[in-house]
Design goal:
The protein has 368 residues and is α/β, with parallel strands linked by helices. 38% of the residues lie in helices and 16% in strands. The chain has an eight-stranded mixed β-sheet, with helices on both faces. A six-stranded parallel β-sheet has the order 11-10-9-12-13-14, with helices on both faces. Helix 1 packs across helix 12 and helix 7 crosses helix 11.
């Protein structure tokens, strides 16, 4: 099958949950013999990333304005026009923002699969107009896509309740089971210097709740024994991301910026605990990655974080800084520097299984 992918900023090594999803999924589909093209957004393509292909996936770069209010919809419009010229069997649109143009793709005669990665209109960074666009995108995707994939049961319930779309395909985000890194040279270079540490990662946007984590770390009194390492950055620097960085520096938090590869492996391999204080998620790949490294976790009690492999004592009330501070103290009370390793059943999150499930969805539409 010939598949064209729209809605992601692009791959490889581009920050974002959808981007990580696509970077893992589509090379596997290409290895299965499918002709896969991802249409990327030009502002996210660095000098070292101007490549025509990645692990069998063709890459085409199309203009997008580097402004969060207009970027997705303008790029999706241009990408759909480009996709029509490529004559695909399937156009796969990711996320509810780009999905607002699902009817356009259908009117041009293309078969559309849409993956709903979560209700992005719940994110605090969006204003009223943007939230309206996102809700409209959710509705357009649910009503007009030939098939809708959801990454969690929570999203399936939303589409069933709001739009009567009861035939969604539940296909989880995935995670690779890693080999932990024995090295610590990167950790030493950022100032960890052998100390035990709390680790968190993600985009520097308000709904990730990193401001709560920094305040909880300060209140907990753990700073004398534990460092806090925060990996990530913002796609579009704004007042919140700047204030967060200043707050982090004042609290002695170690900021790594956006990291992948060996630096990220070291951060995940040697952490004492992983913290996720999010207010909004789809199905968090960052949490699955931490679990794949067998880390103990402290996560907010939002529905999207309710992964079956977790226990009740892994959760704290979202937005409750005192509860987060207490949870960190409780989890780390077994002794200074103790690294509690846990075994999680991550079978449902195997990328190879996810690739086969996605190919089955494509086949069901093409042969219909």
């Amino acid at each position: 099958m010939k598949i064209v992918v729209i809605g992601t900023r692009g791959i490889p090594n581009i920050l974002g949950g959808v981007e990580t999803h696509c970077e893992e999924l589509y090379p596997r589909l290409a290895a299965m013999g499918h002709d896969v093209t991802i249409i990327r957004r030009k502002p996210y393509i660095a000098d070292n990333n101007h490549i025509p292909e990645y692990r069998g996936v063709k890459l085409i770069d199309v203009y997008a304005p580097h402004r969060k209010s207009f970027e997705a919809i303008i790029h999706t419009f241009l990408a759909i026009i480009k996709a029509k010229r490529l004559k695909p069997d399937i156009v796969h649109i990711h996320a509810i923002g780009p999905a607002i143009l699902t009817p356009m793709a259908r009117l041009l005669g293309m078969k559309v699969v849409m993956t709903n990665h979560g209700p992005d209109y719940d994110r605090q960074k969006w204003g009223r107009l943007a939230k309206w666009v996102l809700r409209t995108g959710e509705r357009m995707g649910a009503r007009y896509a030939n098939k809708v994939i959801v990454i969690s049961k929570v999203i399936a319930d939303i589409l069933s309740t709001k739009y009567g779309r009861n035939d969604t395909a539940l296909i989880f985000n995935g995670v690779n089971i890693p080999t932990p890194s024995p090295r610590r040279d990167y950790l030493d270079s950022i100032g960890v210097n052998g100390r035990p540490y709390i680790f968190a990662m993600g985009r520097f946007v308000k709904e990730k709740g990193f401001h709560d984590l920094i305040e909880a770390y300060t209140r907990s009194g753990l700073g004398e024994r534990y460092a806090l390492v925060l990996a990530g950055d913002s796609d579009h620097p704004d007042a919140y991301s700047r204030e967060l960085k200043e707050m982090a520096r004042s609290a002695g938090v170690i900021l790594t910026g956006f990291i992948k590869g060996e630096p990220l492996r070291q951060c995940l391999s040697h952490a004492a605990i992983f913290a996720m204080p999010s207010y909004h998620e789809g199905l968090p790949i960052a949490l699955l990655e931490a679990m794949s490294y067998r880390l103990d976790v402290a996560v907010s009690d939002i529905p999207a974080n309710s992964i079956d492999a977790l226990r009740d004592d892994d959760f704290f009330e979202v937005g409750n800084v005192q509860a987060l501070a207490a949870k960190l103290r409780q989890k780390l009370s077994t002794g200074e520097g103790t690294m509690r390793r846990r075994d999680y059943d991550l079978t449902p999150y195997d990328w190879d299984i996810i690739a086969r499930q996605t190919a089955d969805v494509y086949s069901s539409i093409v042969t219909r």
